[in-house]
Amino acid sequence: MSSTPPPPAPSATGSGNVGTIRVPITVLLLGIITCGIYFFFWYYNTFEEMKEYSGEGLGGLVGLLLSIFCGIITIFVLPAEVGNLFESDGKEKPISGMTGFWNLLPIIGTIVWLFKVQGRLNDFWESKGATKD
């Protein structure tokens, strides 16, 4: 009775497309100019790119819905997923879900949070070969 072993589980090291590098100040300014609408676009794309790359995480639609209906969760989940990309690559997490607590500081905390999250995500994509446009 010989049976073949099951195929290995998909690797979290990532084999999908590398995400887009975004300038944090541009994300912030577009979000302000569009009265916050661009932030929903940003959440969708960021979650979707991470899911496509690693095969793990919420994905664009779930990330977008969470940001619309329960944004308090998203501010913790997004940096956690960015940190998980680094961890699955064998590196130390530069940010974690705890980064979401920056949002407790009015205005400036949200700006710091955005720069930390997008900055670390840019670092990860650059390490995978993405270039600035």
Structure described in brief:
The protein is an all-alpha fold. It is built from five helices and no strands.
**SSE pattern, N- to C-terminal:** HHHHH
Count of distinct structural domains = 1
Q: Span from first to last CA?
A: 57 Å
Give the biggest sheet: none
| Topology, number of strands | 0
Rounded to the nearest angstrom, the radius of gyration is: 16 Å
Q: State the helix count.
A: 5
Global mean pLDDT: 90
Model regions low in confidence, pLDDT < 50 over at least 5 residues: 6-12
In words, what does this structure look like?
The chain is mainly alpha-helical and 133 residues long. The protein has five helices and no strands. It has helices at 24-33, 37-54, 60-69, 71-88, 108-127. Helix 1 (24-33) packs across helix 2, helix 2 runs antiparallel to helix 3 and helix 3 packs antiparallel against helix 4 (71-88). Residues 6-12 have low confidence and may be disordered.
